[in-house]
């Protein structure tokens, strides 16, 4: 979730920049989301997950579960359709399936990473508002289909998506490094604890032997 929020902040900054320069390049068209991709909904209950499943199972939560059957295949984007995490996005690949309130975008006519970042920027915040101020929030197909997005030229889409792919890689590497250093520090702390314990134990034995 932290990565998505960081992407949202960074995308807003970059979007302002690209909007400023678009008058010097090409005019960005505005289209409905449903006109540039197919939108389908999952059909499974959230409890259909299987611990040792072979395929990804996307629900309305942040976590990706596993299952032994699939309904979708190929690159796409999943959108959580209800609950506290409504609007949460995942990039989907390979074979997978989805919960009955989770929407799957496929056959995407624009650069997928560009669309993913665009939805982070202008769709997810709308869902967060509905979640915060609504009752039991849920999305209907029309809300997703009619959502408007800006569509720059394909070259501009590629530049933007490349920027975020590189950013994602850097963050992933950084997270791995952070985890590595945390683990290393944990090992060092544990070894220090062992050493201190053995020293104290040795001193105790020495003291006991001297008193005999």
From TrEMBL:
Coiled coil: none annotated. It holds the Pfam family Methylase_S. Keywords: DNA-binding, Restriction system. It comes from the Bacteria. GO terms for molecular function: DNA binding. One of its GO terms (biological process) is DNA restriction-modification system. InterPro entries: Restrct_endonuc_typeI_TRD, Restrct_endonuc_typeI_TRD_sf, Type-I_RS_S_subunit. Residues 27-175 form the Type I restriction modification DNA specificity domain. Belongs to the type-I restriction system S methylase family. PANTHER family: TYPE I RESTRICTION ENZYME HINDI SPECIFICITY SUBUNIT, TYPE-1 RESTRICTION ENZYME ECOKI SPECIFICITY PROTEIN. This is Type I restriction modification DNA specificity domain-containing protein. It comes from Mycoplasma capricolum subsp. capripneumoniae 87001.
